[in-house]
Amino acid sequence: xxxxxxxxxxxxxxxxxxxxxxxxxxxxxxxxxxxxxxxxxxxxxxxxxxxxxxxxxxxxxxxxxxxxxxxxxxxxxxxxxxxxxxxxxxxxxxxxxxxxxxxxxxxxxxxxxxxxxxxxxxxxxxxxxxxxxxxxxxxxxxxxxxxxxxxxxxxxxxxxxxxxxxxxxxxxxxxxxxxxxxxxxxxxxxxxxxxxxxxxxxxxxxxxxxxxxxxxxxx
Length: 219
Description:
This protein is of the alpha+beta class. The chain has 2 domains: 3-145, no CATH class; 154-211. It is built from 8 helices and 8 strands, in the order βαββαββαββαβαααα. The protein has helices at 17-22, 55-61, 89-98, 121-133, 149-153, 158-169, 181-188, 192-211; strands at 3-10, 27-35, 41-48, 65-74, 77-84, 101-108, 111-118, 139-145. An 8-stranded antiparallel beta sheet has the order 4-5-3-2-6-7-1-8. A hairpin with a 2-residue loop joins strand 6 (101-108) and strand 7. Helix 3 runs antiparallel to helix 4 (121-133). The chain is elongated and about 60 Å long.
Protein backbone atom coordinates (compact mmCIF):
# COMPACT_ATOMS: atom_id res chain seq x y z
CA UNK A 1 0.00 0.00 0.00
CA UNK A 2 1.32 3.45 -0.91
CA UNK A 3 2.28 5.64 2.03
CA UNK A 4 3.14 9.27 2.65
CA UNK A 5 5.40 9.93 5.63
CA UNK A 6 6.47 13.13 7.31
CA UNK A 7 9.58 13.16 9.44
CA UNK A 8 12.38 15.34 10.72
CA UNK A 9 16.16 14.98 10.81
CA UNK A 10 18.46 17.22 12.89
CA UNK A 11 20.47 19.46 10.57
CA UNK A 12 23.62 18.42 12.43
CA UNK A 13 23.17 14.90 11.02
CA UNK A 14 22.25 15.93 7.50
CA UNK A 15 23.16 18.17 4.57
CA UNK A 16 23.95 21.90 4.85
CA UNK A 17 24.54 21.83 8.63
CA UNK A 18 27.69 23.95 8.33
CA UNK A 19 25.94 26.48 6.11
CA UNK A 20 23.04 26.74 8.55
CA UNK A 21 25.45 27.32 11.42
CA UNK A 22 26.83 30.34 9.55
CA UNK A 23 23.44 31.47 8.21
CA UNK A 24 20.97 30.38 10.96
CA UNK A 25 18.12 32.53 9.62
CA UNK A 26 18.28 30.99 6.16
CA UNK A 27 15.58 28.59 5.00
CA UNK A 28 16.40 25.97 2.35
CA UNK A 29 13.65 24.19 0.42
CA UNK A 30 14.26 21.28 -1.93
CA UNK A 31 12.13 21.61 -5.07
CA UNK A 32 13.30 18.37 -6.66
CA UNK A 33 15.78 15.63 -5.84
CA UNK A 34 17.51 13.02 -8.01
CA UNK A 35 19.55 10.11 -6.65
CA UNK A 36 21.14 7.31 -8.63
CA UNK A 37 22.69 5.74 -5.51
CA UNK A 38 22.92 6.41 -1.78
CA UNK A 39 26.17 8.36 -1.91
CA UNK A 40 25.35 11.10 -4.44
CA UNK A 41 22.12 13.07 -4.10
CA UNK A 42 21.34 15.89 -6.54
CA UNK A 43 18.77 18.36 -5.18
CA UNK A 44 17.49 21.60 -6.67
CA UNK A 45 17.30 23.98 -3.74
CA UNK A 46 15.65 27.34 -3.07
CA UNK A 47 17.22 29.59 -0.42
CA UNK A 48 15.09 32.26 1.28
CA UNK A 49 14.82 34.54 4.32
CA UNK A 50 18.46 35.01 5.19
CA UNK A 51 21.64 36.89 4.38
CA UNK A 52 22.62 36.15 0.79
CA UNK A 53 26.04 37.82 0.77
CA UNK A 54 28.71 35.17 0.11
CA UNK A 55 26.10 32.39 0.39
CA UNK A 56 27.46 30.57 -2.67
CA UNK A 57 30.97 30.62 -1.19
CA UNK A 58 29.65 29.32 2.13
CA UNK A 59 27.85 26.48 0.35
CA UNK A 60 31.01 25.62 -1.57
CA UNK A 61 32.88 25.34 1.74
CA UNK A 62 30.22 23.09 3.31
CA UNK A 63 31.60 19.55 3.65
CA UNK A 64 28.21 18.06 2.81
CA UNK A 65 28.20 19.78 -0.60
CA UNK A 66 30.29 18.25 -3.35
CA UNK A 67 29.11 20.62 -6.09
CA UNK A 68 27.02 23.78 -6.13
CA UNK A 69 25.74 25.84 -9.05
CA UNK A 70 23.79 29.08 -8.71
CA UNK A 71 20.96 28.84 -11.23
CA UNK A 72 19.06 32.06 -10.57
CA UNK A 73 18.55 34.97 -8.20
CA UNK A 74 15.08 36.49 -7.92
CA UNK A 75 14.52 39.27 -5.38
CA UNK A 76 14.95 37.58 -1.97
CA UNK A 77 15.45 34.05 -3.31
CA UNK A 78 18.32 32.11 -4.81
CA UNK A 79 18.04 28.82 -6.71
CA UNK A 80 20.81 26.24 -6.71
CA UNK A 81 21.63 22.88 -8.14
CA UNK A 82 23.78 20.91 -5.71
CA UNK A 83 25.39 17.53 -5.31
CA UNK A 84 25.31 16.33 -1.73
CA UNK A 85 27.80 13.85 -0.30
CA UNK A 86 26.96 10.77 1.75
CA UNK A 87 25.87 13.04 4.61
CA UNK A 88 22.51 12.87 2.80
CA UNK A 89 22.67 9.14 2.12
CA UNK A 90 19.34 8.44 3.83
CA UNK A 91 17.63 10.49 1.09
CA UNK A 92 19.63 8.64 -1.53
CA UNK A 93 18.48 5.36 -0.03
CA UNK A 94 14.82 6.39 -0.13
CA UNK A 95 14.94 7.55 -3.74
CA UNK A 96 17.36 5.05 -5.28
CA UNK A 97 16.57 1.92 -3.28
CA UNK A 98 12.92 2.37 -2.29
CA UNK A 99 11.76 4.39 -5.34
CA UNK A 100 10.41 7.09 -3.05
CA UNK A 101 9.55 10.63 -4.15
CA UNK A 102 10.45 13.61 -1.97
CA UNK A 103 7.43 15.92 -2.08
CA UNK A 104 8.84 18.48 0.35
CA UNK A 105 12.12 19.00 2.20
CA UNK A 106 12.74 22.18 4.19
CA UNK A 107 15.60 23.09 6.52
CA UNK A 108 15.07 25.70 9.23
CA UNK A 109 15.43 26.10 13.00
CA UNK A 110 17.85 23.23 13.39
CA UNK A 111 15.87 20.55 11.57
CA UNK A 112 15.10 19.21 8.15
CA UNK A 113 11.38 18.50 7.69
CA UNK A 114 10.45 16.09 4.90
CA UNK A 115 7.31 14.70 3.30
CA UNK A 116 8.03 11.59 1.24
CA UNK A 117 5.86 9.32 -0.90
CA UNK A 118 6.68 5.59 -0.70
CA UNK A 119 5.11 3.31 -3.33
CA UNK A 120 5.01 0.57 -0.69
CA UNK A 121 4.57 0.86 3.08
CA UNK A 122 7.51 -1.51 3.46
CA UNK A 123 9.76 1.19 1.98
CA UNK A 124 9.17 3.39 5.01
CA UNK A 125 9.98 0.53 7.39
CA UNK A 126 13.15 -0.25 5.43
CA UNK A 127 14.17 3.42 5.49
CA UNK A 128 13.68 3.62 9.26
CA UNK A 129 15.84 0.54 9.69
CA UNK A 130 18.48 1.94 7.33
CA UNK A 131 18.55 5.24 9.25
CA UNK A 132 19.01 3.44 12.55
CA UNK A 133 21.82 1.27 11.19
CA UNK A 134 23.61 4.34 9.83
CA UNK A 135 23.03 6.47 12.95
CA UNK A 136 20.58 8.96 11.48
CA UNK A 137 17.91 10.31 13.80
CA UNK A 138 14.74 9.88 11.75
CA UNK A 139 11.76 11.16 13.73
CA UNK A 140 8.55 10.08 11.98
CA UNK A 141 5.76 12.54 12.86
CA UNK A 142 2.89 11.58 10.53
CA UNK A 143 1.99 8.65 8.29
CA UNK A 144 -0.82 8.92 5.73
CA UNK A 145 -2.41 6.70 3.16
CA UNK A 146 -2.50 8.09 -0.37
CA UNK A 147 -6.21 8.78 -0.02
CA UNK A 148 -5.39 11.29 2.74
CA UNK A 149 -2.92 13.39 0.74
CA UNK A 150 -5.09 16.51 0.71
CA UNK A 151 -5.51 16.39 4.48
CA UNK A 152 -1.80 15.76 4.96
CA UNK A 153 -0.79 18.76 2.87
CA UNK A 154 -2.63 21.12 5.24
CA UNK A 155 -2.10 19.27 8.55
CA UNK A 156 -5.83 18.56 8.89
CA UNK A 157 -7.49 15.54 10.42
CA UNK A 158 -9.82 13.69 8.07
CA UNK A 159 -12.79 14.94 10.12
CA UNK A 160 -11.62 18.57 9.86
CA UNK A 161 -10.95 18.21 6.14
CA UNK A 162 -14.39 16.71 5.47
CA UNK A 163 -16.14 19.41 7.51
CA UNK A 164 -14.34 22.31 5.81
CA UNK A 165 -14.94 20.96 2.32
CA UNK A 166 -18.59 20.30 3.15
CA UNK A 167 -18.90 23.88 4.39
CA UNK A 168 -17.73 25.14 1.01
CA UNK A 169 -20.06 22.82 -0.89
CA UNK A 170 -23.21 23.87 0.98
CA UNK A 171 -22.43 27.59 0.87
CA UNK A 172 -21.64 28.11 4.55
CA UNK A 173 -18.87 30.58 3.64
CA UNK A 174 -20.83 32.35 0.91
CA UNK A 175 -21.95 35.97 1.30
CA UNK A 176 -24.79 35.85 2.08
CA UNK A 177 -24.66 32.35 3.55
CA UNK A 178 -26.66 29.61 1.89
CA UNK A 179 -27.04 27.85 5.25
CA UNK A 180 -26.49 28.78 8.89
CA UNK A 181 -24.42 27.05 11.55
CA UNK A 182 -27.33 25.22 13.16
CA UNK A 183 -28.55 23.84 9.83
CA UNK A 184 -24.99 22.80 8.97
CA UNK A 185 -24.61 21.08 12.36
CA UNK A 186 -27.92 19.29 11.84
CA UNK A 187 -26.75 18.05 8.43
CA UNK A 188 -23.65 16.58 10.10
CA UNK A 189 -25.70 15.20 12.99
CA UNK A 190 -23.57 17.02 15.56
CA UNK A 191 -24.21 19.84 18.01
CA UNK A 192 -23.74 23.52 17.20
CA UNK A 193 -20.88 23.62 19.73
CA UNK A 194 -19.16 20.58 18.22
CA UNK A 195 -19.36 22.17 14.77
CA UNK A 196 -17.92 25.44 16.06
CA UNK A 197 -14.98 23.69 17.73
CA UNK A 198 -14.29 21.51 14.69
CA UNK A 199 -14.28 24.49 12.34
CA UNK A 200 -12.10 26.55 14.64
CA UNK A 201 -9.49 23.82 15.01
CA UNK A 202 -9.57 23.20 11.26
CA UNK A 203 -9.13 26.90 10.53
CA UNK A 204 -6.20 27.08 12.94
CA UNK A 205 -4.40 24.11 11.39
CA UNK A 206 -5.05 25.37 7.86
CA UNK A 207 -3.79 28.89 8.60
CA UNK A 208 -0.77 27.60 10.53
CA UNK A 209 0.32 25.23 7.76
CA UNK A 210 -0.44 27.57 4.85
CA UNK A 211 0.59 30.98 6.18
CA UNK A 212 3.44 29.96 8.53
CA UNK A 213 1.73 31.48 11.56
CA UNK A 214 3.32 30.45 14.84
CA UNK A 215 1.13 27.90 16.55
CA UNK A 216 -0.39 28.83 19.93
CA UNK A 217 -1.85 26.07 22.07
CA UNK A 218 -4.31 28.42 23.74
CA UNK A 219 -7.79 28.65 22.26
